[in-house]
Amino acid sequence: MKAAVVRDFTAPLAIEDRPLPEPAPHQVLVRIEASGLCHTDIHAARGDWPVRPTPPFVPGHEGVGVVERAGDLVRHVGLGQRVAIPWLADACGHCDHCVSGWETLCLQQHNSGYSVDGAYAEYALAHGDYVVPVPDGIDPMDAAPLSCAGVTTYKAVKVADSGPGTRVLVSGIGGLGHLALQYARLAGAETIAVDVTDEKLALARDLGADHVLDARIQDVPAETQKLGGADAAIALAVSNDSFRAAYAALRRGGTLVLVALPAGGTLEIPVFDTVLNGTKVVGSIVGTRQDLAEVFRLHELGRTRVIRETRRLEDVNDCFEDVLAGRVTARLVFDLR
Ligand code: NAD
Ligand code: ZN
Ligand code: ZN
After folding, report:
1. Is the C-alpha dihedral spanning 265, 270, 275, 277 positive or negative?
2. Is the pTM of this model over 0.70?
3. Enoyl reductase (ER) domain: which residues (predicted)?
4. pLDDT tens digits for 293-306?
5. Which of 49, 146, 206, 238 most suits a substitution to test ligand 1, by most atoms within 8 Å of the C-beta?
């Protein structure tokens, strides 16, 4: 099978022919149809984060495909079923996080395309209990971005406590942000979209943002404060400056939800203001299997639009450059059919 492999953090990915993997008793072998390119895959391939994956590895955690083989212990999915392989490859299933609806915080989790091989390949192995069924009505090319960009921002909007009458700022209208904006609108919030490219600002308008700010030429905190400040700001741009701006755009009692993970990302905040303003700063990491099932259901009901372009896996290195240069509409998806 064909796979895109990271051999070295400083080298381009290599397209390799690998033997078809054998599913263990608890695993399924998935024939990948669609595999989304999340900015996280670029961080993974470059070793950007304090905990690094070990090369060689296959990135990709927005994998969607059909179960072709299943181990003897797999009970919840059947052959021929379309499933998603998300970031949470598996968790222990028993710790306090796992049993209280926070499996994404499990200390013993594995992550697709990071600590275990992911979906930048014609086939991928996955844990039978942690793949999420994709409803028949959903195009696999849409299901792929929903499996990380969708579920992550759906969760972030929940964590932000967005609701009718709240004002939510979405910083970065890329793969994640274009969906965050839609979930915030579905929650009933007034929305402020922030980006730094004309195309993304146009996309935000098209998706119905109530206010659109260009961080290149506008003072995001000042413009947001003119509106009364943001009850929540969801930080999705790969930029420390954007975190500072999102923090300063909050109104009293507001919540900054950190999602983006720039290399060496830091945010220094003034204690005095944070205390006096009752500001909350919270990190948000992907979402659970249940969150993803809800994301798929919303899409099946026609409530969300996935803005994506399809590419060939062979072009993965050019695709990384395009994402870094802001040259993509929102999400790139490898078509492996
Ligand atoms: P992306 O490249 O598709 O989107 C980033 C967007 O931010 C782009 O539209 C870009 O133009 C915009 N931007 C850049 N500088 C900006 C600025 N100063 N102000 C406002 N906008 C700006 O990336 P993505 O795939 O959406 O991922 C975003 C980040 O989220 C990455 O760091 C990724 O690793 C991280 N991520 C986190 C989680 C999680 O669970 N916490 C999950 C998935 C991705
Ligand atoms: Zn991702
Ligand atoms: Zn656990």
Report:
1. negative
2. yes
3. 8-334
4. 999 999 999 999 99
5. 238
Which ligand does the CA of 90 lie closest to? 3
Give the whole-angstrom CA distance, residue 167 versus residue 235. 14
Q: What is the DSSP string of 8-38?
A: -TTS--EEEE-PPPPPPTTEEEEEEEEEEE-
The residue count of the chain comes to: 337
Q: Which two tokens stand for residue 309?
A: 């372009």
- Summarised one tens digit per residue, pLDDT across range 209-253 is 999 999 999 999 999 999 999 999 999 999 999 999 999 999 999
Token pair listed for 85: 């392989």
Beta pairing class for 14-17 and 2-5 = antiparallel
Tell me the C-alpha distance between 197 and 215, whole Å. 9
Report yes or no: 235 and 262 within 8 Å, Cβ to Cβ: no
What is the 68 CA–ligand 2 centroid distance (Å)? Answer: 24
